[in-house]
Amino acid sequence: MSLPDDLLAEVDALFHDRVAARTAPSSVWGVFDRDGLIASGGHGDRGDGRAPDADTVYRIASCTKSVTAATLLTLVAEGRADLDAPITDAVPAFAEVTLPSRDAPVPTLRMLLTMAGGFPTDDPWADRQESIADAELDDVLRGGLLFDSVPGTRFAYSNTGYALLGRAVAVAAGTTFHEAAASRVLVPLGLEDTVFRAEDARGYVVTGQRDDDGSWTPQPMTGPGAFSSIGGLFSTVRDLARWARHLASATSTAPEPGPLSPADRRLMQQAMRVVPPSVVPSSTRATAYGFGLFVEQDPRFGELVSHSGGYPGFSAHMRWSVEHGLGVVAFENATQAKVSAAADRALDLVLDRIPGQPVPVAPGVERTTAAARDAQRSVTTLLQQWADAPQDPAGDALADRVCSPNVAMDQPYERRRRALAEAVARVGVDLHADPVEEHATVPSQLRWWLPGTNGRLRIEIKLAPLAVGLVQTLTVTAEPTER
């Protein structure tokens, strides 16, 4: 897909302005679709006097969690791990943790994947734990943990939970977590620039910075350890866009092959645990957590999948539209830069410029999509007949074939014909014109607009669950031009 130059310039300006405002020394972004990276850009000084590009290496921090989840799911698919097994099976030291109540369950892998282990949110502390050894993590567990809730009952973003999942991966795979993630996910997908050690990176590795009263202070680069599964990866815009595109392809009719099945990739992107509004107070969207990924519900664009990453000296974000496969990735090298704000705005800009929102096309719903299109054509013919020959009984006979019986019962055809005539007259619409916009959030529902001399006519249909594809809701609304 190609995007207009003025749109890409607007996206680029978002990141340029952040460097100009000293949010971070450098900022880099990329826009991708189902075929690959569409465009990218970078601003500031990455550390060698040059602006970053799509192959410049940054820490991606908690974007790593999606790779952790995917690696675990490959082991589940092979029968080497069980999502409903207690974490004590893989980490015996956890048995020494006192649970918050007598009837509290030991957290399972599924609970930990969905951030429902019951532990307190722990970003500042956990971000400094990456390099500790497994034995040190065991010592932490033997010292006891605090709980904010009974395991399995509510969401709380927990790095400790994902550190435990990293150990579960290692035990099930019979190797280190880092080797399992690389051999099972990264290498098979050709993500050669996504690594756990800075010295293994092929491109220029950016140094993380902290703003200390107007001057940038370099932050130490930690190495692999027991907490790498929470956010230890380095990557590039090109590689992370490739990873996000692979995940996004699972919701298309032609999913890419890969080490994780399309069904499991779709599972990762399901809303499984509600994220309370207090956790994301600036968000205007309902948000949930899947397996290593956030899932947002947008009234205009449908489901958006995302994850941010924040490490000392770094900020990262990836997000995409489930329906379109369009997405944005972005990195900056400053503590608490929150590049997610710019990436969020960038994807909104891109999706806003798509002419209409098509009926979602996803595996298993092609039949429903086709039924909605057939119903749209039939309803178009029905409305034309009602408008051109309101007294002709053929129009009502067609309505009986197109609609389920409740439509006439909910509002008689005579009233529907009269309301249609009033709406057509109000906006001066030609019912034989082609739609100027379409929108659908699910395959069984479709909304489209016809142009008029004084506004637009909105037509909306919802299908009953019957295989014959009958219309159970038919709404026609005039939308006059504001004066």
Structural class: alpha+beta
N-to-C span: 36 Å
The CATH class designation of the largest domain is Alpha Beta
What is the total number of structural domains? 2
Q: Could you give the count of β-strands?
A: 16
Shape: globular
* Residue share in helix: 25-40%
Average pLDDT score: 95
User: What would you give as the CATH superfamily of the largest domain?
Assistant: DD-peptidase/beta-lactamase superfamily
CATH topology of the largest domain: Beta-lactamase
CATH architecture of the largest domain: 3-Layer(aba) Sandwich
Radius of gyration: 26 Å
**In what range is the share of β-strand residues?**
15-25%
**Low-confidence parts lasting 5 or more residues at pLDDT below 50?**
none
- Which strand order spans the largest sheet, edge to edge or round the barrel? 2-1-12-11-10-9-8-7
| Number of discrete helical segments | 15
Biggest β-sheet: count, sense, barrel? 8 strands, antiparallel
Brief sketch in words of this structure:
With about 475 residues, this protein is of the alpha+beta class.
Describe the model:
α1 runs antiparallel to α11, α2 packs across α7 and α6 crosses α7. The protein contains 15 helices and 16 strands. It has 2 domains: 348 residues, DD-peptidase/beta-lactamase superfamily (Beta-lactamase, 3-Layer(aba) Sandwich); 115 residues, Nuclear Transport Factor 2, Chain: A (Roll). It is globular, with a radius of gyration of 26 Å. With 483 residues, it is α+β, with helices and mostly antiparallel strands. Helix content is 34%, strand content 19%. Strands 2-1-12-11-10-9-8-7 form an 8-stranded antiparallel sheet, sandwiched between helices. Strands 13-14-15-16 form a 4-stranded antiparallel sheet, covered by helices on one side. A two-stranded antiparallel sheet has the order 3-6.
